[in-house]
Specification:
By secondary structure, this protein is of the alpha/beta class. It contains eleven helices and 17 strands. It is 25% helix and 23% strand. A hairpin with a 5-residue loop joins β6 and β7.
Length: 383
């Protein structure tokens, strides 16, 4: 790695040039880190539904050309002169839910939002100067936008030091790459945001990666009843392996699914989690909670043009509607603890991995997730 320090690296990346079009797997240039930046050699990555969301142009910015990807892991290749918390050779996870440790938000115990994150969310530029990128095209030198500040669909990626979490050297990168988004979002919503207690009853709407992580975290928390709600019988059956106690196929009922859940639980569940991003399902998830103190958590990304409509009386007796990003985890300081829990076996990462492909087949990996039969496809950047 020392041979590349301070130099521009030419490597492969999957570049999105327009919405809903296959990525271009091509050579790009990756600039070395500036004083407060880090360059990472990505070894493994996954595709998340959020990548599909932005690739399909459902966001408001629609920035192209862009290198997507926010679930990955690798090894620190080099650091800027002012970086102290990580060094070349350290195993790490790029974290879009970044943590500068200096802003007022980072110093608050009430949030995991960071000023750097707020800039990265709507920008494809580097936060250090808010004007440039570290990716350029080989053929003409034109800039390529970053994604969430980390862009892991590149063999090398330069990012702000706020966006990198140093992790346990014992971590297996082909598994730990899953902790970049979906699984922390699911387990953290149970443990950090809602603080689900033993004996609780829970309904989980949507059983993709986030929903399955919610189910597994509820099982670990000792919930007495975990009800899975979906339209796909195969997903419901698969989720039983993660800890579901009951399955409900929405297509099997004539009455509203929230009424079905209230009837079968004697008034409603203690907690519900929407992992779909569907406005109608979000409302059903709220209404299936017990009126006196039930908590409903929104986790699915809603298309920017859609809205949720409800009457405030639904909250009058004490129902709580909540949400949060990345399961409430602060990226640099708290994600390493989740890595350690996974190493100890508290969360089984293996059963989330349904497919494996070399990085060169990234478009095939996109299609697998888009078709719905894949939980996570781990891409190996060494192949």
């Amino acid at each position: 790695m020392a041979a590349t320090e301070g130099k521009v690296i030419t490597c492969k990346a999957g570049v999105a040039y327009e919405a809903n079009k296959p990525l271009s797997f091509e050579d790009i240039h990756v600039s070395p880190p500036q004083p407060t930046e880090v360059r990472v050699k990505i070894t493994h990555a996954c595709i998340c539904q959020s990548d599909l969301y932005f690739w399909k142009g459902k966001d408001t910015q629609k920035l192209f050309p862009r290198i997507l990807g926010h679930e990955g892991a690798g090894i620190c290749e080099s650091v800027g002169a002012q970086v102290r918390h990580i060094k070349a050779g350290d195993k790490c996870i790029p974290v879009w839910q970044c943590e500068c440790t200096k802003c007022g938000k980072c110093k608050s115990s009430k949030t995991n939002i960071c000023d750097v994150f707020m800039f990265n969310w709507g920008s494809g530029l580097m936060p250090s100067d808010k004007a440039t990128t570290r990716f350029t095209r080989v053929e003409d030198g034109k800039p390529i936008y970053h994604f969430f500040g980390i862009s892991v669909f590149s063999q090398y990626s330069t990012m702000d030091e706020a966006c990198i979490a140093k992790i346990n050297p014992k971590a297996e990168l082909h598994k730990i790459c899953l902790l970049g988004c979906g699984i922390p979002t699911g387990v953290g919503s149970v443990w950090n945001i809602c603080k689900v207690h033993p004996g609780s009853t829970v309904a989980v709407f949507g059983l993709g990666t986030i929903g399955l992580a919610v189910v597994e975290a509820c099982k670990v928390s000792g919930c007495s009843r975990i009800i899975g709600v979906a339209r796909d019988a195969g997903k419901l059956q698969r989720a039983m392996e993660f800890g579901l106690t009951d399955t409900l196929n929405i297509k099997s009922f004539d009455k509203p699914i929230e009424q079905v859940i209230r009837d079968m639980t004697g008034g409603g569940v203690d907690y519900s989690f929407d992992c779909t991003g569907d406005p109608g399902i979000i409302k059903s998830a709220l209404e299936c909670c017990v009126e006196w103190g039930g908590v409903s958590c929104i986790l699915g990304l809603v298309e920017s043009s859609q809205r949720v409509s409800f009457h405030p009386a639904l909250l009058l007796w004490g129902r709580v509607w909540t949400s949060g990003l990345f399961g409430g985890y602060k990226g640099r300081s708290q994600l390493p603890d989740l890595v350690d829990r996974c190493i100890k076996g508290h969360i089984n990462l293996d059963h989330y991995i349904t497919h494996k492909l070399p990085f060169s087949k990234i478009n095939e990996a996109f299609e697998l997730l888009n078709q719905g039969g894949c939980i996570r496809c781990v891409m190996d950047y060494e192949k």
